[in-house]
Amino acid sequence: MKKYLLISLPLAVLICGFSIKTLLPKKETSLNHVALHVYDLQKSTSFYQHIIELDTVLEPFHDGKHTWMNVSSTSKLHLISGAEKETTHDKFVHLCFSVPSLNDFINKLDKEHIPYESWLGAKISVTTRVDGIKQIFFQDPDGYWIEVNDDNK
Fold first, then answer.
1. Domain containing 133 — which CATH number?
2. Quick one: 76 and 94 in the same domain?
3. Contact 50, 34 (CB under 8 A)
4. Are residues 125 and 151 in the same domain?
5. 93: which residues sit within 8 A by CB, 6+ positions away?
6. What does the pLDDT read at residue 94?
7. Is residue 118 part of a domain?
8. In terms of Cα–Cα distance, which of 138, 120, 139 is closest to 129?
9. Which domain holds residue 62?
10. Alpha carbons 131 and 139: distance in angstroms, whole number
C-alpha cells in the first residue's frame, strides 16, 4: 500500500498541476521596458521628466548610471549612461507617446524651443495619418526620435 501511495501521489500532483495550469487564464505578452543608451544621463532624465512628463521609479543598481521611468503600469523606460557620443538615429526607429491634447503638447515644445516636424520632415508641421490620428516627431538630447500623437482613446 505504501509503495502504491509513493508512486501514485507524485503522479496525481503532476496531473493536477498540469490540469490547473491549463485552466488558468493565459497572460498576454506585454512590453516590460525600452532601454536607451544615452550620452548625458542627467540631461536625458530631465528631458523625459520635463517634456514627456515621465516619473522616475526606483532602480536596483543605485550606481548613478541608470534612470528608470514609468511609461505605464506595466512598461518602463530605462535610460543607461555610457554612450561615447550623441549619434544619429533613423526616424523609423522611434518611441511613441500619446497625449490628451496634441495642441497643448506642441505649445509646450514651442515654449521649450524644441523643433518638431511631420513624418515627411516638414518643419513645424503635423501629420494626419490615414486613421485620423495626428502626430508629430522630434528628437531627444541623444537624437532618438519621438513620436507624439493624439491616439489617447
1. 3.10.180.10
2. no
3. no
4. yes
5. 144, 145
6. 98
7. yes
8. 120
9. 30-83
10. 24
